[in-house]
Amino acid sequence: MGSQKTHGSAKTASRSQTALPPMYKILMHNDDYTTMEFVVSVLESVFHLAPTEANRIMLNIHMKGFGICGTYPFDIAETKVHQVHLIAKKEGFPLKCTLEET
User: Cα dist. 65→57, 58, 59, 73, 90 in Å?
Assistant: First the structure.
């Protein structure tokens, strides 16, 4: 019986060693200049969302002040935020995205 407890503890220890990386939510924030159409376009192109989902998130951004675009590991989330900022700057919009650890 004593060996079973040790075996169970070994299983528990090995599970904790394979922890998943921390995840980050990408938040897109409302502003008075960026058009709704542009926001939908960015959600579709950068986050690969279907038009219906992109419109739903855009309305959250417009009505609540922000919307969650997706949840990703840090490196991917950081890259997507950078892409959004580059596209927005190129088009002359002050669209802002931030990261928040889940």
Answer: 11, 10, 9, 24, 23
Q: Residue 31 is part of a domain; what is its CATH number? A: 3.30.1390.10
Closest CA to 39 of 65, 2, 20: 65
Q: Which residue has the tokens 């490196």?
A: 75
Residue 1 has pLDDT above 70, yes or no: no
Question: Beta-carbon neighbour count of residue 94 at 10 Å?
Answer: 12
Instruction: Give the chain's domain count.
Output: 1
pTM exceeds 0.90 for this model: no
Does a structural domain hold residue 34? yes
Find the domain containing 53 and state its range: 22-101
Q: H-helix or E-strand containing 16?
A: helix 2-17
